[in-house]
Amino acid sequence: MIILRTAQEVRDHVSALHQKGKTIALVPTMGSLHEGHLYLLREGKKLGDICAASIFVNPTQFGPSEDFSRYPRDEEGDLKKCAEASVDLIWVPPVDEVYTFGDQTSVEVIGLSKMWCGVTRPSHFRGVATVVAKLLAIFRPNIALFGEKDFQQLKVIERMNRDLGFGAQIVGMPIVREPDGLAMSSRNAYLTTEERGRALCLYRALEETVKLRNKGESNAALLRKVALAELNRSQAKIDYVAIVDPNTLESLEQVVGPARLLIAAYIGRTRLIDNIAL
Ligand code: AMP
Fold it and tell me: pLDDT tens, 71-104?
């Protein structure tokens, strides 16, 4: 596995690979890798001739009062896991390889960034879209893989890739869960044992809503009610529970075609998100 630090090294390597006709699958991450990330890396290995990854805790996607400084970091462990997942090339840049002092350019997907997580985290998706645009420009991947765990993020990136014409194929991957159903997330490490137990209410809320939907209920207000009750039972502080069109992320009143249930809630101080197809 080739470990690179500078953007220029990445450009040089990918140019050589593209010249040889190799396809590149890219998996961007913020590190602290878990099975969810490893699933993306293994799939990347299958989809591209070369599986490339990045580990970068992106400061611009954290708000001023968010957890940037305490976000879990484990470069040594992550590199070992990447090597075991047969990653070919990994970029682990210092912040000044990605952002230069006085940067004047950022990328914003106007509509999709303002709703749901964008309400509580107003600059989050600008940070995400900007860093992913930089990654797509530097790696020029044929394919880039992202998890459905961050469903709104996936939609923002698909839109940005389309609007700016990067030409990468954006592939969304299903959510990897712990055996009891909790969606894997680097932020689960923040949960105390008691909170870890309560955190399962997000998964239960998804499951109960799907059950009701499968019985034929199509009224979104009634479907939401089931999810809200499950979250309230475990004293989750609800940020939002939304039933949306999976492409536009607009709220639905009736579920007739494809729909997605999106949940964001705090368990203690930890903000968790999860979602499922209805
Ligand atoms: P992060 O390191 O949290 O920025 O995540 C890097 C990538 O892994 C993103 O595309 C996430 O959506 C994806 N990811 C994170 N957790 C999971 C999970 N539990 N299942 C599938 N993909 C995930």
Answer: 999 999 999 999 999 999 999 999 999 999 889 9
Tell me the CA–centroid distance for residue 215 and ligand 1, in Å: 31
**Annotated catalytic residue, options 13, 34, 37, 124:** 37
Q: Which residues of 172-200 are buried (b: 16+ CB within 10 A; e: fewer)?
A: ebebbebeeebbbbbebebbeeebbebbb
pLDDT one-digit tens code per residue, 226-262: 999 999 999 999 999 999 999 999 999 999 999 999 9
Structure tokens, 153: 């993020």
Q: How far apart are the first and last CA of the chain?
A: 40
CB of 184 shorter than 6 A to ligand 1: yes
Q: Which residues does 240 contact at the CB level (< 8 Å), separation at least 6?
A: 116, 119, 120, 262, 263, 264
**Cβ atoms within 10 Å, residue 222:** 12
Quote the pTM value.
0.98
Query: Residue 11 is inside which H or E element, if any?
Result: helix 7-19
Burial class of 16 by CB neighbour count within 10 A (0 to 12, 13 to 18, 19+): exposed
* CA pair distance 177, 149, nearest whole angstrom: 10
Distance separating alpha carbons of residues 69 and 61, to the nearest angstrom: 12
Beta-carbon contacts of residue 170 (< 8 Å; ≥ 6 apart): 143, 144, 146, 154, 157, 158, 161
